[in-house]
Amino acid sequence: MKAEAREAQQELESKLKEVVSLLTESRNRVKELEAFSESKSERWSKNQHIYQIFTDFQLGALRELKFASQSIRQDIMRTQKSYSEEFSDLGSRIMALDDAAKNYYSLLAENRRMHNELQELKGNIRVYCRIRPFLPGQKGKQTIIEYVGENGELIVLNPTKQGKEGRRSFKFNKVYGPTATQAEVFVDTQQLIQSVLDGYNVCIFAYGQTGSGKTYTMTGPDNATEEEWGVNYRALNDLFRISQTRKTTFRYEISVQMVEIYNEQVRDLLSTDGQPKKYPSLLVFLYLHTLGILSTTQPNGLTVPDACVHPVNSTSDVLKLMDIGLKNRAQSSTALNQRSSRSHSIVSIHARGIDLKSSSSLRGSLHLVDLAGSERVDRSEVTGDRLKEAQHINKSLSALGDVIFALAQKNSHVPYRNSKLTQVLQSSLGGQAKTLMFVQLNPDSDSFSESISTLKFAERVSGVELGAAKSSKDGRDVRELMEQVTSLKDTIAKKDEEIEKLQLVKDKGGGGNGEKRGTNSLRYGGNGFENAASSDHDDYSEETEGSHESSPVHDQAKLAEKSEKAKSASKVPRPLGKSARESPKASTALRKSTSGTNLSAAKSSRRWQ
Ligand SMILES: Nc1ncnc2c1ncn2[C@@H]1O[C@H](COP(=O)(O)OP(=O)(O)OP(=O)(O)O)[C@@H](O)[C@H]1O
């Protein structure tokens, strides 16, 4: 029992020991757990602290963000408000600008209208006379120019007559003396250039005997400096300059053609194949004959559509083309001028303007014409081909005079078809077109008769437009006289044809003296100013005395003069200058030539040497 008890005790003791060890172990574990949980709790509290800091920081940042977003929102609202204010201000400004633009357009249109009305008031046919200076090597030559007035008066002296009898007065829109510069000459032409961009056709041509300065005025001398540029270059410069100033309202397309008329044949001076294109005369005749009618309705406004049309964007583009054209121009020499141009050269600038607002378009053209020399056949000592050239030149110049005269008289029939020159220029002569003629004079007394015939031609062109004939164009007497003129001209044209046929027959039969016959034909062929010149050389006033031989244009001039007299009889006479009061002959001449302008200023005349 004891043993059992001991055994039990030992067992209990060992179990106790086990329990104690378990307890110790548990305690250790508890301690370990406590230490672990303590470190954990420490870490947690650390982390918590960090989180706290982070959260505080984030909250602070959020608060700042909130604040910033609020201030941004306020800024945006403020900006929005100022923008909307500015937009509405801008809107009202744009509306005001739109109104102003509308006014600007109408003002521009009004401006253009007024400009063109002013040009029309100045006359659609203008004549400017330019006297070239004596050239180096012409020292000691006697001048025929006695007086050049500010307002277009000109007095010339007949070197073979003394005193009043040797004086003759003319009146043009403007007269430029020998010292006038190219720039001065262009000033009065400039106003016409704008009209081209306003849809008008403008024709500027130079007329005068060989060597009188036609090419100088139109183009300038060879290798001209900018100062020496002629009307052509200056006009083109202006055309491009004005088109630039209008670029907000108009887009312009400008193109160039250049042709010459040589012996009644139209030749393209800008043909791209390098050779001037020569149209067979029959073809040209048929072509232009039809074109004469079509030219007013053709949509592209081209009168010679077969000639090359070169688009250009600047003056230099045109200069290059003109150089090519000038090189191609037919030139040969006469006894008067080695560099004499025997053809009419026509530079045609076509401008199409597109209104950027309305998309409507307008077309205008500018014809710059350097006419061939108008010298008399006998004086330039030409024969054969040169004689033929001269005959063609004189015939076409005469036709040009007839057209301008008919236009100035407002005749229902304008004889455009009498020459290639007038056919090509048809759209730029008459109607709304504006024509400016430079009458070129050589001041040398040796050229007196040519100068007088040139001046008479010019007087015929300008006198009727500006003088009394225009205002009484509907008078019965004028109409009757003009009908007589037309029938006379028809008769003469028929006779001219007959003479030419006879000449041809004679020529074929080897009848020899072509020069003489040519001269006769020329005289009879209607070149009024040439005819006038041959008698004018002896006496200015033969027209008033009826001593002139029969010639179509002379008859025409006489008839026109009669009508002028008839009209002036019913008018209050205008004051006349001293010379006019003193001599009945001079009085008639002065009344005719000055269209009633008082030339008393001529008393204080100056003379060029
Ligand atoms: N205003 C001027 N100032 C200086 N020189 C001039 C003037 N006008 C003409 N000349 C000179 O006179 C000469 C003849 O002029 P130009 O060749 O222009 O005559 P043209 O009438 O055209 O002759 P053509 O009918 O033969 O062609 C040229 O040497 C030219 O430079």
Report on this model:
With 609 residues, the chain is an alpha/beta fold. It folds into three domains: 20-121; 179-442, Kinesin, CATH 3.40.850; 477-571. The chain has 17 helices and 13 strands. It has helices at 2-121, 182-197, 214-218, 231-245, 281-294, 315-328, 384-408, 420-424, 448-466, 468-471, 476-508, 514-524, 528-536, 542-545, 552-569, 578-582, 584-594; strands at residues 125-131, 145-148, 153-157, 167-171, 174-176, 201-207, 250-262, 265-268, 277-278, 310-312, 344-355, 361-370, 434-441. Strands 1, 5, 6, 7, 8, 9, 10, 11, 12 and 13 form a ten-stranded mixed beta sheet that branches. Helix 9 (448-466) packs across helix 13 (528-536) and helix 11 packs antiparallel against helix 12 (514-524). The longest helix is centred in the N-terminal third of the chain and has 120 residues, at 2-121. It starts with a helix and ends in a 15-residue tail after the last helix. Mean pLDDT is 72; it is low at 274-297, 464-479 and 510-609.
